[in-house]
Design brief:
119 residues; mainly beta; five-stranded mixed beta barrel; two-stranded antiparallel ribbon; globular
Length: 119
């Protein structure tokens, strides 16, 4: 588990006593409707399911300095898939199944983004 400013940031929720992971966080389990959820730590390790290169930042000018950048669907070891940026890599470095690990981008005091780099 990687830490940012002393906080455990890569966490998933699940119904108490069950092994199904829930991502994105929500007030109840979408499978069994239980509201008795608990937080569990994620390893932060996974692999690339698919990816694309963003070459233009039309809607979000905050990302225009980062163009071009990679985004991907990442399959975490815990069985969930999340969409995130892939950093410190080029298209030539990545293919489906490439191992990745979470890194945290401390954007502001209130916002820390999970991103992924190659393992």
């Amino acid at each position: 588990m990687r830490l940012c400013h002393g906080l455990t940031l890569c966490r998933l929720s699940r119904p108490r006593g069950k092994h199904v992971q829930i991502f994105f966080p929500r007030p109840c389990c979408p499978k069994c409707a239980s509201e008795e959820l608990e937080w569990v730590e994620s390893s932060g390790d996974g692999e690339v399911f698919s990816y694309s290169t963003v070459r233009r930042s039309v809607k979000f000018p905050e990302f225009s300095d980062d163009v071009p950048y990679l985004v991907g669907h990442i399959d975490l070891e815990e069985g969930i898939r999340m969409f995130s940026m892939i950093v410190e890599a080029t298209e030539a470095d990545i293919q489906m199944g490439t191992p990745v690990e979470v890194v945290f981008d401390h954007v502001t005091d209130e916002i820390t983004l999970p991103k992924f780099s190659l393992k």
